Amino acid sequence: MIAFVRGPVAAVSLAAAVVEVGGIGLEVMCTPGTLATLRVGQSATLPTSMVVREDSLTLFGFADEDEKQTFELLQTASGVGPKLAQAMLAVLAPDDLRLAIASDDTKTLTKVPGIGQKGAQRIILELKDRIGAPTGGRTPSAPVAGAPWRDQVHQGLVGLGWSAKDAEKAVDAVAPEAGAVPDVAGLLRAALRTLSKA
User: Fold this and answer.
1) What range(s) does the Helix-hairpin-helix DNA-binding motif class domain occupy (predicted)?
2) What is the dihedral of CA 27, 30, 33, 34, to 10 degrees?
3) Are residues 78 and 55 both part of a single domain?
4) Structurally, how many domains does the chain consist of?
5) Checking phi first, is residue 22 left (phi over 0); if not, alpha (psi -120 to 50) or beta?
6) b/e string for 60-72 if b means 16 or more Cβ within 10 A?
7) Domain check: are 70 and 110 in the same one?
8) How confident is the model at residue 51 (pLDDT cuts 50, 70, 90)?
9) pLDDT for 11-40, tens place per residue?
10) Is 138 part of any domain?
């Protein structure tokens, strides 16, 4: 197994980078976020995961070790191959994935192309006990990607004990009140009123 590659970046395309290692150019498949950090001619170190198939050897590269471990863990869920695991990391950071899985947030997972409602539920079911809690500065009360006020209100409701599904409905119900500069506290109160009526 190739655990990492280090060397000058020879080329960067839309889906991969070529890193020169000992006179050999290794093509490494990367997410757009990782590719954006690479510059042709500059040295780079990428943790890697090799996927071996009958007809190919594919090297996937990552921004850090956490992303690599998340990529490998995602593939242990049925129906998740390397391409889908990489797509998940292209859309969601490892901590966002952990947060979505830990809070049964199928809506966030279905933002990934190729994951439907049933697929998201299966991933949550299979990985919830193994993926662990968010490791960075992000906690369940912190906003995740998307409209910041929506995520803050949603996470606030989940933190207060409402299910992710009920919280999502309440956020949708108060969305028309958001305006140009949303008052998060006011929207959270309005969402709570919506849920108490239901």
Assistant:
1) 72-91, 107-126
2) -60
3) no
4) 3
5) left
6) bbbbeebbbbbbe
7) yes
8) very high
9) 998 889 999 999 999 999 999 889 989 999
10) no
